[in-house]
Design brief:
187 residues, 2 domains, 36% helix
Length: 187
Amino acid sequence: MQNRSLLALKILILVLVSAAVAIFTISATRPPDPADIAKAKSDLAQLVAAVQKYKQDYGHYPAGGSYGRYENVVSNALLIKVLTANNDVENPKKIKYLDIPQSILTSRSSAYGIDKKDGAWKDPWSWPYRVRVTTDGSDQVTNPYSGDSDKTIPQAVIAWSIGRDGIQGNWRAPNTFNGSDDVVSWK
């Protein structure tokens, strides 16, 4: 009797794991909504312009990123606070570089917009936008897609979204932009 129960449990676990893999595969291969892509592209352009304008006004990029990288929830939230005039230390002139509508500021905590729990600006798929700035004055940054042939991008500020699948790059070839559902500011 105990062997049958153990066998039934093993079969149940196998079925559940198979179902989870099937659901992930189906959702990862479905193309993203063009309206979501357009919204992310627009947001990325605003974000890049805001960071550039901040540097023009203050002579440096906002602090909070590690080596010019704002690529996680915490550094995204710090950057957004500076750019929305909610950080008196980094933005003492209280210049509003990003004007995010109130409806986005009060959106659901796991939806597009400013996340009420962590303060990060999320893309249409609920992932924080990522930003990279030059740190050596060369007006170029390291390509975040290390699997691509271009190792640097000839821009001082770039931003990107990791897309609906939540994986940077193509899920078959991580850190490769081609074939991914990611949205970038430089292409």
